[in-house]
Amino acid sequence: MKKILILEDNISHMKGMVKMMESIPEVEIYEATNIKDAHELLLYNDFNLFLIDIILDSQKTGDVSGIEFVKMLRESKRYQFIPIIFITALKDPYLSTFREFHCYAYIEKPVKEEELLKTVKEALEYPEPNAAPETVFFRKDGVLFSVKAKDITHITVGRRGVNVYTTKDCMKLSYKPISEILKELKSDTFIQCSRSTIVNRAYIENVDLSNRYLKLKNNDEIVEIGSVMKKYFRQGL
């Protein structure tokens, strides 16, 4: 199931686009009318496509806050190359959007259903870099074990070794630097939140950056976000 985030301040336009896309199979559409709500959705979801209105505050002269939001997205490793479609009333946003932020496409208002569906479907087929591998392999006592990546909730590294936590159990392995584990995972689905912990973003239920901790889904354990990693963790989300 692929996830689409629409950032559009005009609720009528938002509802219209959502209705137009009802026929697209295997997608979940999320709605945000402002950047604050969009940031909140980013904390708990891993999006495959963005539809963003360039002007999010029509009462503010010269507003281009949608572009500012995209600039933030492109600074995140996770969303560096994810397709973004601008929805705009501007006649020629090409120079400020396509070239600088590698925008996938832009659609002029009023939005036409045929154009929207065609562009969205094409963008959803765009190959995503660093997609999570289906299977991750770990070596224990000379034996190679396979674990489905989607089942790994988090991994901790300590002096006594490595613990790979899954939805079913915990696999204890010999010590290995966290940097090597991240290279083996080969995916932005997994994000380092401290010097000793890697989490699967799909299992993040709640994030408290002020107090530097997060809670995982179906797990009572509180995971600390390291003070040094706080900035990079925020960008990684």
Description of the structure:
By secondary structure, this protein is an alpha/beta fold. The protein has 2 domains: 2-124, Response regulator (Rossmann fold), CATH 3.40.50; 135-236, OB fold (Dihydrolipoamide Acetyltransferase, E2P), CATH 2.40.50.1020. Helix content is 28%, strand content 32%. The chain contains 7 helices and 15 strands. It has helices spanning 11-20, 35-44, 65-75, 94-101, 113-124, 178-185, 230-236, and strands at residues 2-7, 27-32, 49-53, 84-88, 105-108, 135-140, 143-148, 152-158, 161-166, 170-173, 190-194, 197-200, 204-208, 213-216, 222-224. β9 and β10 (170-173) form a beta hairpin. The protein is elongated. The mean pLDDT is 84.
How would you sum up the global shape? elongated
Distance between the termini: 19 Å
Domains (count): 2
Question: What percentage of the residues does DSSP assign to strands (E)?
Answer: 25-35%
Contiguous uncertain segments of 5+ residues: none
Name some characteristics of this structure.
237 residues, alpha/beta, Rossmann fold, OB fold (Dihydrolipoamide Acetyltransferase, E2P), 2 domains, 5-stranded parallel sheet, 5-stranded antiparallel sheet, 7 helices, 28% helix
